[in-house]
Amino acid sequence: MSDQVRVGVVGTSGYADFSHLPGVKSHPRAQLAAICGRNRDRANEMAAKYEIPQVFTDYREMIAKGSLDALVVATPDDLHYPITMAALDAGLHVLCEKPLALNASQAREMLQKAEEAGVVHMPFFTYRWVPHYRYLKQLVQEGYIGRCFHCHIRYVAGYGRRGQYLWRFDRSHCNGTLGDLGSHMVDLARWYVGDVARVSAHLGVYVDRPGPEGQPLDPANDAAVLLLEFENGAQGMIQLSAVADTADRAQEQHIVLHGEGGTLEADLSGSGGVIHGARHDEQRFQTLPVPDDLWGDVDRTDFRSSLLSGVFLKQSVADRLFIDAILEGRQVSPSFYDGWKAQEVIDAAIESHEKGAWVSLKRE
Questions:
Q1: What is the DSSP code (8-state) at residue 221?
Q2: For the chain, which terminus, N or C, has the lower number of CB atoms within 10 Å?
Q3: What is the reported pLDDT for 356?
Q4: CB–CB of 133/107 below 8 Å?
Q5: CA–CA distance, 15 with 31 (Å, rounded to integer)
Q6: Is the preceding peptide bond at 291 cis, omega within 30 degrees of 0?
Q7: CB-side neighbour CA atoms (13 Å) of 236
Q8: What are the residues whose beta carbons fall under 8 Å from the beta carbon of 253, sequence distance 6 or more?
Q9: Where are the alpha helices (DSSP H) in 165-236?
Q10: Distances 252 to 124, 246, 247 between C-alpha atoms, Å
């Protein structure tokens, strides 16, 4: 590997603007070499903002002519598979937004090709790198709750309440809130508890919205409830909604882990987060502050800024972790394997809703 990792980014959305582009640019040994977007004016705007020398409107041309080492795929979900496979054919390292694909079959193909190519591959499971959730993982590994009995996860937001067209609620592009918010929470459930054996799910559509340019819409779910049975026997429940009135909290996440040795719970919203815990011999929950070493040299005055402008732009996490893994010639966690395993649960949830029955996941 040369002194600099030449990175191309496919996608010019607001999320690419406040996450991937600044994340890559913040790394001292990464170069934003090219950007690709369907709207050339928007792509030119992002190129000027981040000093990116090459602008493309076709990802295939960018892969062929951009002289890249790595690609960040930050597009609607239905484009993850074809763009990633083209990048892997060219021998590029790939960071792909979550969910990894539209189904487990695609995700498995992406994993297999990435492994055959011997490149670094990573899905963008954002919450793996939030200090509160990293500390929760550390506590679980240290045996705070012992053997896990129950895992309850709730992630609600209100970005789907207005009823306008969004590709995130268009089944031709995605699997709705189950794929959008659910992929994050399924990944955390696996990270904390282990692999999932069976799923029972109900998917809901609560807000009417038009299709693109006023055309009829095949609506994807905007809410979901999943019951999980983990391979280790633990029980789980995941509740998701993009149509909850969250007022000034923006988004709310709540995770509870009950185990033989005690209980851990984490609450996270747009304004901050807190972890509480109680061991089996304690009568009251205690607040468990996130250790300073997980925050690093970050101004914590504003929670959102401390994450986006601090942790994600200073530590070896997210896009910066991807670059470090390339430079160091090692694989990274989460990898496409984790993206595939999350997609298996999503597929099972969709099948369960359609059949009205529990669906078992295939064992490897």
A1: P
A2: C
A3: 98
A4: no
A5: 19
A6: no
A7: 33
A8: 127, 153, 154, 155, 185, 266, 267, 268, 269
A9: 176-180, 182-192
A10: 19, 7, 10
Separation in Å, CA 83 to CA 11, 94, 117, 318: 11, 10, 15, 20
Q: Alpha helices of the chain — where are they, by DSSP H?
A: 14-15, 21-25, 40-50, 59-65, 80-89, 104-117, 131-141, 176-180, 182-192, 292-295, 303-305, 312-314, 318-328, 336-355
**Amino acid letter, residue 179:** G
Per-residue pLDDT tens for 252-297?
999 999 999 999 999 999 888 999 999 988 999 999 999 999 998 8
In the numeric block, which tokens belong to residue 169?
């609620």
Residue 162 has a CB neighbour count (10 Å cut-off) of: 10
Amino acid present at 94? V
| Phi, psi values for residue 204, rounded to 5° | -125, 150
Secondary structure (3-state) at 310: helix
- Collapsing DSSP states into helix, strand and coil, what is residue 125? coil
In this prediction, the residues of the chain whose per-residue pLDDT falls under 50 are none
Find all residues with CB under 8 Å of 288, minimum gap 6, and list them.
135, 139, 264, 275, 276, 277
Task: Supply φ then ψ for residue 59, to 5 degrees.
Answer: -65, -30
Q: What pLDDT is stored for residue 229 in this prediction?
A: 98
ω into 99 cis (within 30 of 0):
yes
Beta bridge pairs of residue 56: 36
**The overall pTM is greater than 0.90:** yes
Q: Would you say how long the chain is, in residues? A: 364
pLDDT score at 364: 66
Nearest CA to 144 out of 30, 264, 318 is that of 264
Q: Note the helical H segments in 199-335.
A: 292-295, 303-305, 312-314, 318-328
Helices 336-355 and 104-117 cross at an angle (nearest 10°) of 170
Q: Write out the two tokens for 215.
A: 């055309």
